[in-house]
Amino acid sequence: MRFNTLILLSLTCVCLALAHTTYDDCCLKYVKKLGRSTQRHAVAYRLQVPDGGCNIPAVIFTMKRGREFCANPKEKWVTDLRKKIDRRPRGHKKPMKHDQPYRG
């Protein structure tokens, strides 16, 4: 009886561990739209394919400060934003207003 209980407990722990790690890094829903000012802060993107625990295709945009947004890859604004990010030179940063010299 103890052996059966031990096996059942072990299998339960393994199943819980697998279920927990499956959805850690997956998009489960999309944002409808990102405003133009928010889109300007997008610095990178990656694609999510529906396999394993991730059950929807998505484009995951990463913002300057590390925040991420999931978007539907079929939306036109998503395709346009991906193209804009791809056209940017690597390592190129626009000067911020506070980085510009003061001209008083």
Reconstruct the topology from this structure:
Layout (H helix, E strand, L loop, with lengths): L1 H21 L13 H4 L2 E7 L9 E6 L4 E4 L4 H12 L17
Antiparallel strand pairs: 1-2, 2-3
Pfam family, one: IL8
GO molecular function: chemokine activity
Organism: Champsocephalus esox (pike icefish)
Describe this structure in words.
By secondary structure, this protein is α+β, with helices and mostly antiparallel strands. The protein has a domain at 26-90: OB fold (Dihydrolipoamide Acetyltransferase, E2P) (Beta Barrel), CATH 2.40.50. The chain contains 3 helices and 3 strands. The chain has helices at residues 2-22, 36-39, 76-87; strands spanning 42-48, 58-63, 68-71. It has a 3-stranded antiparallel β-sheet with strand order 1-2-3, with helices on one face. A hairpin with a 4-residue loop joins β2 and β3 (68-71). The protein is elongated and about 65 Å long. The N and C termini lie far apart (85 Å). The relative contact order is 0.13.
